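PROTOCOL LOG
Step 1. Enter all chains and additional molecules of the complex.
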Amino acid sequence: MSLVTDAKAGIITEEMRQVARQEGVTEEFVRRGLAGGHIVIPVSPYRTVKICGIGEGLRTKVNASIGTSSDIVDVDLEVEKAKMAEKAGADTLMELSTGGDLTAIRKKVVASTSLSVGSVPLYQAFIEAAQNDGAVVHMREDDLFRVTAEQAKLGTNFMAIHTGINWETVKRLQNQGRHGGLVSRGGAFMTAWMLHNEKENPLYAEFDYLLEIMKEHEVTLSMGNGMRAGAVHDATDRAQIQELIINAELADKAHADGVQVIVEGPGHIPMDEIHANVVLQKRVTNNKPFYMLGPLVTDIAPGYDDRVAAIGAAIASSYGADFICYVTPSEHLALPTAEEVFEGVISSRIAAHVGDMIKLKKRDADLEMGHARRDLDWERQFAIAMNPARARQIRKERMPADSDACTMCGDYCALKIVNKHFNF
Ligand code: SF4
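Step 2. Run joint prediction.
Step 3. Record the structure below.
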């Protein structure tokens, strides 16, 4: 049995009850969402996690991705990043290490968090091939499935798996070219492997075997977006759409087989194409939960890409994206620090909330903040704030002589002046 098969059989599990309570919806709403493939609740038989529902009618969720690189391998730093992400309010964590002892790092990170953890198993299979056999193109097909099962047993709740890169997709990419190249590591590894070996992507060719592993370990399948645009001029191109169509077909098959499925999407997208991307993704996938990477709405603000992605994520969420992968200020420049992980999560949480104000009409907290500001009730303002500690610290550093107001207007505090004459 899985959550999907339970839901289809009309059974409401404890996980569904918890999501209903968290989101203020009925248990039946959550059950129907799971049964129809519109909601997922990533779980693992190997680890107890904070339950988090993702999908239609639920609050937009934020993922923080962390992990070592071949240049920076510091396990303690990754554990610190995992804790920072949770402290900043991330809903899930992806552990994407590509440097050092990958299994040992993953074990430590997983043990340090109560969040659902995601991974990209093909990284490990390709990197082990590079380390042991000299190049990623020497990856052995069996290793892809072996590491997938091994990572599942470490308590991984969801996995990004690049199933949609097949010969059709690669042909589209070859025919059209790209302004910004191929930026997905998984997409690049798999495309290089297919071209070198002149073989079909094993994750596509052996999809039934992959589903068996997902079912056995109750992993939520997140269908990877290896052809996502890495430049706004490549957004919504044929290779991206081809991969989406393949992933959508496989996602239906996975759901019919009792596996929970998310479908990933781009990437770098100009603002006027975000709506079309969300509608297309939702329509083609029969309304599966949409995991959006960013999206980044311009390419020219390195150092501030958390803000660039927050603009895109707010718009995407308002149109129906369900799950947002954060971007840190150091995106495109370097592996993020723990502080940048914190900043990235906060930026994405703001974006997700702004989107939910439209998508779910969730505006209660804004109403309360308006009242707290009007009443110059600072403690209430801090309690509602996205990051109470930062709000409190800024005020404390620059306290006014008259402590009712703030140092922005000081003696001429507009609220204070008018409050004397109006009883709002
Ligand atoms: S001083 Fe100005 S900014 Fe500060 S609370 Fe009053 S009106 Fe608002």
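Step 4. Note key features.
Residues 405-406, 408-409, 413-415 surround iron/sulfur cluster (CB under 6 Å).
DSSP finds 19 helices and ten strands in the chain.
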